[in-house]
## 1
Amino acid sequence: MMDSAQLYETLKKIQEAKGYFFSNDKDHVFELLEALLTNKERYGYMVCPCRLSAGNRVADKDIICPCEYRAPDVEEFGSCYCNLYVSKEWNDETIPHDYVPERRPFEKMGF
């Protein structure tokens, strides 16, 4: 099974090529990567650890990491909701680190 260091290196290569970077806060990044691996064991897929999973791949497909909200979040705020993926400007601290609001529609949250 993959560990968080392996996941970091694998995702770093794939996502940086797309213009998405891991946050400079390595402790936070590795906590999230560990949680993604836990969710993969639990559900069979890497669902966002910052959101409540339905435990159903179809219901959760919008929040399987990288979630479908990452691109608009990074474009608008320089960071995704979890602060896992960020822009170069975010890491360089040339843009403010504003709170990233939840974009996931309420009806998809399973309440």
Note: The helical segments are 4-16, 26-43, 57-60, 70-77, 88-92.
## 2
Amino acid sequence: MIKAVLFDMDGVLYHTMPFHAKAWMSSMAEYGLSMSEEEVYRYEGMIGTETIKLLARKQWGREVTADEASEMYSRKSAAFSAISSPSKMSGIDALITHLHQDLGLTIGVVTGSGQRSLTDNIVSDFPYAITHEHIVTAYDVKRGKPAPDPYLSGLRKCDADACEAIVVENAPLGVQAARAAEIFTVAVNTGPLPDSALHESGANVVVSDMHELLRRWEEIIIMAQQ
């Protein structure tokens, strides 16, 4: 039986990815690093400082220190806070209400974000379904997505085995992380990447939005339990 549903945050609970893309591109440009919108979506889910280390390795040919990466990520976070206007994804409240209140499922959140301004809002925005105890952030793991660690932590926090959970993701690295944890994974394609990028990352099902996910939930449950 399915006991828990683990949601990513950006691009799943909240319509924040366009703002993240602008913040990443503008802040990294200040340090002489280029980052395309496609790269932002492809690296989504990775711990922010690890994304910076990857960019520096590729473009500068050297490793940046933890302090350098932390300072650069702080600049990105400030840029995001200055331009963002986060709103919930269309249909997410109806979906979570059905899963938690109608079906009695535990709702978890697994994000690679280290921005407390965002994660602190989750419980207040979804008070009927999500508690602090069921949220995994960048501070809870040493290895971020695409490693399975964030979703393994999510399973522990929600007291569920992999076969008792479903993941809802929107990014290739997040899908890879969930599948590495051996969890049935639904990808909601809320970004500019083709569906094929999510299928190739291992998504069991790809849907276009939360409304389609809600309509197909019974079908998805059957698939997950096979």
Note: The beta strands are 4-7, 106-110, 135-136, 165-169, 184-188, 205-207.
## 3
Amino acid sequence: MDIRQMQYLIEVARLGSFTKAAQALYITQPTISKTVKAMEEELGVVLFDRVGKKIELTDAGQIIVSQAQQIVTSFQNLMAELDDLRNMKKGHIRIGLPPMVGSSFFPKVIGEFHQRYPEITIQLFEDGAKKVEQGVASGALDVGVAVLPTVEEELSYFPFVEEKLNLVVHPTHPLAERASADLAELVQDGFVLFREDFTLHDRIISECAKAGFQPHVIYESSQWDLISEMVAVGLGITLLPETICREIDDEGVRIIPLVKPVIPWKLGIVWRDDRYLSFATREWIRFAREVLLPREEEA
């Protein structure tokens, strides 16, 4: 017995007539009569008492119609829910964001997305880019923001920020008045860095090693504003992306372009194309690309 047969049965019971049910369903009466007969043979019970031109449900028929109504209602609800998902009316998205990029780029994206799709809920997970990348790769997150290039090769992505790191020092630092700085000049300085679960942590240490020294890390944090404040009170120096530097109160620090080497900072939206992506997640990726890369959309 399938949904179509149940719908035929319910309509015959509701109208008390094979003819009227056939008309309501836009099918022929022989079709609906054969369907009911096939159901009776399959179930081994009589569903209708036929008394002249009138038909009435048997006891077995009443039980089956009652259950069939619940099943058909549940099926209709299921299809409605799926239609909502297909039309992006409902859904849930788990998004991983490194703390230092969330406030700079995503309030606008999230706000506009919510206005367009108010029934889609978004759950934000703030963590370092390395953990975000791992979460997307494992399936714990639907989509995230990571520093490119990614370590997890199976991730798909589109880049939306490409900047470089600047040196941030206290106003009394010997390099404070310089127009630019070299990384090798920081060999004697104490570094204030992001924690090890941030890709930027490893990137800076790697670049220092290429410059011929191991940085002396005196403090680690997950918050860029705390890092900049540590520099402002003279506890050390740091390297931060240009976007973050624009947010810093430059009265307490000096921001100097790092030119040797130039350390790139490239961000991308990452996801896994080789796994199922919900309608809501796919729309988030499309929408984020549209908002973050408007010129690309116009082109």
Note: Residues 192 and 227 are 6 Å apart (CA to CA).
